[in-house]
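step: validate -> pass
step: tokenize input -> pass
step: predict -> running
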Amino acid sequence: MEKKMDEEPKKSYPKGVRIMAAAGAVLLVLMYVVTLIAALTTSPASSSLFKACLGGSILLPIMLWLYIRFAKLLTK
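step: predict -> pass
step: emit ->
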């Protein structure tokens, strides 16, 4: 069978998964910006902000990866 030229290719991930991945990327960038600001300021809360952003930058990608894996398994 021939493929029509105006047909869109099948996407490998559902729209919700792609949105979650983009939101995760934005959150990671925001956490790095907060970490940079916390490092440059001498606020008493800067050490706790740094620890929270460090933990988030480890946990957020793991949680998003798990979400994407489960979503892909459930949509098959």
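step: describe -> The helical segments are 15-40, 46-75.
step: cleanup -> pass
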